[in-house]
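A quick aside before the break. I want you to see a complete sequence-to-structure record at least once, exactly as it would be stored in a machine-readable document. Don't worry about memorizing anything.
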Amino acid sequence: YELYYDKEPIGAEQDEDEREENYAITGVLITADGGRFDVKGKYQTETEVGESESELFFRAYTSADDRRSYIEVKQEYENEQEDGESEREVEYVYTVVKDGVGQETMTVEYEEEENEKELVMTISKGGRTEELTFEDELENGMRVINVEGTLDGERVQFRIYVTENGYDYVFPGDPRP
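That is the input. The structure line, written in tokens, reads:
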């Protein structure tokens, strides 16, 4: 997907060292197969010493005549610097709505603090929710990604060892590479 949009300022506030800016956005979302969807939404930024946040929200309407069917996207970013340490959080929420009814929602949350990284992916569809958590860490100098959650209603857990030659997947009971 490619998103092209214009943003029009609709307001700003300055409160001591904090600044907030708000924009209306209009544009088009273009799919890999050439589909085009009208986009309307808003964009907001907030900055202060050592911290910045932004939020993008839009709806891409799947029909020019039907405003009850759309893809809704919300993206939030937060960066914080304090005492020489940094923290970054990102959240994406994508919802497909057809005839006014939510069909599917996918949420991806990413957090990075010092040398720790975590990603949580959640998909809700048809009354069922699946979730996977990925934690990136070092084990004896080797990069390892711990994965756990549910897929197709079943509990899953495995580790991914990142090597020079690719990835080694290790499931409970398997010997470590």
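Two observations worth writing down. The two ends are 38 Å apart (CA to CA). The chain has a mean pLDDT of 90. We'll return to this after the break.
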